[in-house]
């Protein structure tokens, strides 16, 4: 091989390396941007679900105030709101989409949200906020039941024993 061809191939190699480096960097940066945007979207979905649970708690408080005479000491919230039709009647259309679960026990009222179709990444974002957002995986308020990424998340909605209608 002649000296000129070796120099030519060397120069072409350097130029191709620079071109690929510049364009390749754009692809790498774009994928990092996409990952960051995906993380932000997951956080937004997780926050939205938690906000909806807290809004449901507020709406249940209004339900308690409006239906004080009907609600007794051992009121079974799960029986009162066990079908989409009853949920629609008592709380409105927003909670009648089949994702909401309402239960009660001696400790208080529980608002559940089914996470069908919600990605594991979003579930983990919710789980990371569970301890300080009062979120559980079952209707038992123990440390062992803090929400950890399962199919349903429960918000504990305390009803004071001293609350009289």
TrEMBL record:
Domain of life: Bacteria
Name of the protein in question: Uncharacterized protein
Source lineage: Bacteria, Thermotogati, Synergistota, Synergistia, Synergistales
């Amino acid at each position: 091989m002649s000296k000129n061809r070796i120099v030519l191939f060397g120069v072409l190699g350097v130029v191709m390396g620079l071109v690929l480096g510049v364009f390749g960097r754009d692809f790498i940066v774009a994928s990092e941007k996409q990952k960051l945007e995906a993380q932000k979207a997951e956080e937004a979905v997780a926050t939205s679900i938690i906000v909806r649970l807290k809004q449901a708690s507020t709406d249940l408080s209004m339900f308690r105030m409006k239906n004080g005479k009907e609600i007794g000491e051992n009121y079974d919230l799960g029986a009162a709101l066990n079908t989409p039709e009853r949920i629609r009647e008592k709380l409105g259309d927003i909670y009648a989409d089949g994702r909401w679960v309402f239960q009660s026990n001696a400790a208080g009222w529980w608002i559940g949200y089914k996470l069908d179709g919600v990605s594991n990444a979003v579930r983990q974002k919710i789980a990371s906020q569970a301890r300080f957002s009062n979120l559980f995986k079952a209707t038992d308020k123990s440390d062992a039941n803090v929400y950890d990424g399962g199919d349903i998340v429960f918000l504990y909605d305390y009803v004071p024993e001293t609350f009289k209608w």
